[in-house]
Write a structure and sequence with these properties.
- One of its GO terms (cellular component) is cytosol.
- Pfam families: EF-G_D2, IF-2.
- Keywords: GTP-binding, Nucleotide-binding.
- The protein is of the alpha+beta class.
- It folds into 4 domains: 73 residues, no CATH class; 96 residues, Translation factors (Elongation Factor Tu (Ef-tu), domain 3); 101 residues, Rossmann fold; 71 residues, Translation factors (Elongation Factor Tu (Ef-tu), domain 3), CATH 2.40.30.10.
- An 8-stranded antiparallel sheet has the order 5-4-10-1-2-9-6-7, with no helix packed on it.
- It is globular, with a radius of gyration of 27 Å.
């Protein structure tokens, strides 16, 4: 690495990691450490591992001491001949392309284009790699700060990542994650019984915007009303976020960017309430509106029958039976709750969701009266003709 490149990198690391405050607290370093560093990463002055150097930037006080401490880490060795691992230092949406940009610090190993990154329980391939100065590169080594465009994984400052290129290992981890999320979906806590509650899914253009949005929602809470943040992400909502929105009956708030038409279409198709704005006070007004509407509503569910179907034949398969049906009235919609009635007295034997809905071997969102279709239900296959 050239001298000027090394100096630029050093300044960049200092800029992103320095702990600063107003001069009134300069003699209370212990208070600053406890307020700004998590218990897991305590400063060395109170038994941790992080170097804490107090000083005054304007008066250039203790700058030499700071540089000496930084140079102590120059002797630490890394292995560049292994898959990369490191930490996220920033995440935001590109203002022109609306693509998610993730900034990573490589702490060990070498990161290459087409590597598979594991971050926050998700895998993604590195398609484009840029240096901190914006130059397109193909590899990055320890101590490099890189920008990855289009990773599409929600990440926060301090989240760790590693590269896993073995396909069998990736497949095994993905299967374990699917089982984990399926179990987690069933463990979503119910809202407080005596307190009105509205679930929120938050999306913003940067981590700072996301934190501001979450803080705004928390400040709106009262002794009689509560906003519960069930999911928060930087950038466009992924399939998991949309599924979680449906399961928890959440309202989606999007701040700081214009969501793409495809995402708006998905939200509308699934009847998911959402609000988008680049102005924070408009988000605040929307939250106030939600509080008023929710406080006026009586908690009462009224079910309406939108369609019925008769099971004509049952196709048995190892992965789940398929009910060959004739739609007798209305329409059968994939995103509606279904009931299975059996016997002369039409006893209710199942209540749940449609896993698959097909007509003429084509996947459908809905099938109208008079048409035939194949139905697979989630958690039920004991169909009767």
């Amino acid at each position: 690495m050239k001298k000027n490149e090394s100096s630029t990198l050093l300044l960049e690391i200092i800029r992103r990691n320095i702990l600063s405050t107003v001069n009134e607290f300069r003699n209370n370093t212990l208070y600053l450490v406890s307020e700004n560093i998590t218990p897991v990463e305590l400063g060395e002055i109170i038994g941790g591992e992080i170097v804490v150097v107090s000083g005054n930037a304007k008066e250039k006080e203790s700058v030499q001491h700071l540089l000496e401490n930084i140079l102590l880490f120059a002797d630490f060795k890394t292995n560049p001949n292994r898959p990369a691992q490191g930490v996220v230092i920033d995440s935001y949406l590109h203002p022109q392309t609306n693509s998610q940009v993730s900034e990573l610090l490589i702490q060990d190993g070498e990161l290459r284009v087409k590597d598979t990154i594991f971050l926050n329980g998700k895998f993604a391939q590195v398609k484009m790699l840029f240096s901190i100065s914006g130059q397109k590169i193909t590899t990055a080594r320890p101590s490099d700060i890189v920008q990855i465009v289009g990773l599409n994984i929600s990440a926060e400052l301090g989240d760790r990542f590693l590269v896993i290129n073995d396909e069998k290992t990736v497949a095994k981890i993905e299967n374990e994650l699917i089982n984990y999320w399926e179990k987690k979906k069933k463990l979503i806590p119910p809202p407080p019984s005596e307190k009105k509650n509205v679930n929120l899914v938050l999306s913003a253009d940067s981590q700072n915007s996301l934190e501001a949005l979450a803080e705004l929602a928390r400040k709106k809470n009262t002794p009689n009303f509560n906003f519960s943040i069930v999911y928060a992400t930087v950038g466009n909502l992924n399939s998991f976020a949309l599924d979680l929105t449906k399961i928890t009956n959440s309202t989606v708030l999007i701040f700081g960017y214009q969501p793409p038409p495809k995402q708006i279409e998905i939200l509308k198709d699934h009847n998911l309430p959402f609000f988008s704005s680049k102005i924070i006070y408009e988000i605040g007004e929307k939250l106030d509106e939600i509080i008023i509407i929710s406080s006026q509503q009586e908690v009462e569910e009224v079910e309406e029958v939108v369609g019925t179907a008769l099971v004509k034949v049952v196709f048995e398969f190892s992965k789940g039976n398929i009910a060959g049906c004739q739609v007798t009235s209305g329409k059968i919609s994939r995103n509606k709750r279904v009931y299975v009635l059996q016997g002369k007295e039409e006893n209710k034997v199942f209540s749940g969701e449609i896993k698959s809905l097909e007509s003429n071997k084509v996947e459908k969102n809905e099938v109208s009266a008079g048409q035939e279709c194949g139905i697979v239900l989630k958690g039920f296959d004991n169909f009767q003709e």
